[in-house]
Amino acid sequence: MENNIGFLYEHNRGHSIENDIVINDGSFKRCGCMYEIFEASIYDIDLAINKV
After folding, report:
1. Cα(35)–Cα(20) distance, rounded to whole angstroms?
2. How far is the C-alpha of 24 from the C-alpha of 27, rounded, in Å?
3. Alpha-carbon gap, residue 35 to 13, rounded angstroms
């Protein structure tokens, strides 16, 4: 890291018109911007923060 600055790039579940997300049990959930509920974006933000 130069200058002690890190960078993390993340997608949210609504990153595309339609997006199939793999669930832990191996099934899929269809997500995407056409299904996105803005208030649910906190879960994507929380996941990205915990990933770091």
Report:
1. 12
2. 7
3. 9
**Block residue for tokens 């208030």:** 39
Note the pLDDT tens digit of each residue in 8-44.
777 777 778 888 888 999 999 888 888 778 888 888 8
Nearest in space to 33 (alpha carbons), one of 9, 7, 12, 6: 12
Residue 1: predicted pLDDT? 55
List, in sequence order, the alpha helices (H) in the chain. 41-51
Cα–Cα distance measured from residue 18 to residue 3, given in angstroms and rounded to the nearest whole number:
38
First to last CA, the chain: 14
Output the pTM of the full model: 0.51
